[in-house]
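Troubleshooting log. The previous run stalled partway through. Resubmitting the same two chains, unchanged.
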Amino acid sequence: MPLVDLRQTTLRELNRSLHALDPDTNETHWRVRHPDGRHAVAAGLSLPIAVEIEGHVGYYCAGMNAQAEIVIHGNAGVGVAENMMSGRVHVRGDASQSAGATAHGGLLVIDGNASARCGISMKGIDIVVKGSVGHMSAFMAQSGTLTVLGDAGEALGDSLYEARLYVRGSVKSLGADCIEKEMRGEHRAELSEKLAAAGLQGEVDPGEFRRYGSARRLYQFHVDNAGAY
Amino acid sequence: MSEPPRTRPRHSATFTPDVMAEIRRAAATGIYDIRGAGAKRALPHFDDLLFLGASMSRYPLEGYRERCDTQVVMGARFAGKPITLKTPITIAGMSFGSLSGQAKEALGRGATIAGTSTTTGDGGMTEEERGHSRTLVYQYLPSRYGMNPRDLRRADAIEIVIGQGAKPGGGGMLLGQKITDRVAGMRNLPPGIDQRSACRHPDWTGPDDLAIKIEELREITDWEKPIYVKVGASRPYYDTALAAKAGADVVVLDGMQGGTAATQDVFIENVGIPILAAIRPAVEALQDLGLHRTVQLVVSGGIRSGADVAKALALGADAVAIGTAALIALGDNDPRWEEDYQALGTTAGAYDDWHEGNDPAGITTQRPELASRLDPILGGRRLANYLAVMTLEAQTIARACGKNHLHNLEPEDLVALTIEAAAMARVPLAGTDWVPGRGAF
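Second attempt completed without errors. Output:
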């Protein structure tokens, strides 16, 4: 198991080594020590390897991740797993703003809280936040799911497209064109699947969640809706 | 007894027939006018500058014998794989979605023949343009439509778009009639809905964050790709300085004549500044940082001819980008489609409802029967011809000024025809040594 200490090795060397791996590599489990808040740690991975980061990371950890499973044993800065395509990113602490921004796929699990704009412009990712999320979360979210076990801040799902939002706690306010929707069987099944993927099977009752989605009133621009923008 | 003389009917210079027509249109519809293209109003422009040419005190180069190089290298500041262009005239970012697949292919073909780059737009990278563009710049926009690491790695350069000249501070809108299944699929959106592009990036704000974002993109692509930062011309000194400080290899500066696929007319005509007014402050910013020619400056917005290219380079730019002019070379607004333009209530040369998707020339459309009107091979050839002409024209002027590379053109080669242009371009009014706003009065 390769161990990289970022007090001894540069970030460039770490990322270069991770990018240079062969698809049939035996080095499939990496540990990174002393990230010390560095940015872009383990960004741009494209193989199904595991990377465990022992400490806090700065901006864009696991950015554009594809296939890799990355665990952050600490807090994550802005834009963790931004534009992720596939794979899994697990933040054991809290995440700063724009977690999972614009991500197309994969699973982002945040054990603590996520700050503002969690899931902004998401395009297919599944995000599970065990704590609460800040304001403007799922802003312009296009597809995928955002599951929040705690509360959501102001303007949840503003200008939402087709992403599905599941919140167990309170929602301070809904953004433009975001409404509460009926929680049908298919949604409970979907939510159960996401909770299970996040390792919460049997621990959380999907029946305690409410679903939010787009009213689709702003899908076609109309002057009578100008005040909603 | 004859009638006494009457005052002749008089139109107002403020409430012109055009203004009154727009007021009536607004009153009837309740919605602002959305259109494509760039500012149409008269603006101080390159036409207001002249080259002095060589004479007694300067020696010209022989037009058909002595070399005048045009090559430009982009991105050598930090990129492991900088790109080399044979001509400093590049193709600006235009999206698939706004343009047809055939149009994107034609742009790629023409740029490749000419030895220059083309650029994706707000909709991701298509196989048409990657396959036919030897050098392709991949735009990184606030919407991140179609953004993925595979395309990032197979791009030749990355352009972080902060703004564009037609609408500094504005996002985008692609109306539902152009959102076909293919366009929708690339953007992860339902077909047929009006698709908005955000005006701010979702995961960074400000120059300090931009430095971190650039670092991330460099890490993901192993520091190989040149990274451009594109801004709409508004505060060019500070925007250029901050982009360079954040680590950009190339700054792209787009003036208000630069085109858009769809924006409010009031935005296009009233926000931002002409490119003529933006180049010198941007160059000054790079010079103040000791980075002129290290960070390349690409300027765009109303470039039409080799004379415009030569003037932009003489003011200190390293290269230019063309968008609207490239579309015209492909056949946009061609009088051969006049009957169709008339049917749309307009005329060849004035057609700008690019957002509606009914382009008779088959360029700004997703309708297959219209898009098929553009032959991408012929279109590419026309673009290549046009790029060759512009390059030859710029060389002609450079040789007349005694320069063996287009980059050796300098402000000292220029004078201005108007006080406005002299002040903006910081060159003397022709026949004087007066540069308005510079030095003592």
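Takeaways: The CA atoms of residues 238 and 373 of chain B lie 44 Å apart. Residues 376-400 of chain B form the longest helix (25 residues).
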